[in-house]
Amino acid sequence: MAITKASENQIDAILSLCKECSQNMLNNSLDQWDEVYPNREIFLNDIKNDSLFIANYDNSKEIIGCVVLNEYQDPEYGDIEWKHDGENIAVIHRLMVHPKYEGRGIAKSLVGFVEELAQKGQYDSVRLDVFQKNQRAVNFYHKLGYTVSGKVTFRKGEFWCCEKPLTRKVNKYGGL
User: Which of 121, 24, 20, 137 has its CA nearest to residue 162?
Assistant: First the structure.
């Protein structure tokens, strides 16, 4: 599997992936994403800011998953008592895997990829929010070492705010 930065010419494929994921959530009684969020403008902004990464199998142009990593924290995050309150915080947004590829470790690979990017970027921790009703996603992040620091309310309901501290790799001379 290859993970690369998304480009504007892939926007239609990304929107198609989002539509498939949104419908899959609805099929599983999760009314989380819709035409309001996430939308074309949000994804184009992610691409413009070099923060949207896509996954595809080698030698295939089909986008099987994507994730966003940036520094944007919703204003509601300011009310959370974060356990790991460092100066440099990276935030995961809009993790998606095409429903026909679920269960193959793609989401785990995407999260591992952005965590490594965050670590290389000298971030202290990674944060995210996850829809409380999406128990599968809640369990997924818990297994990856994310802990709940609080909850916020967005348009579709309550979301857990989770975080994971990053350890800085030290070289054999004691520096980073």
Answer: 137
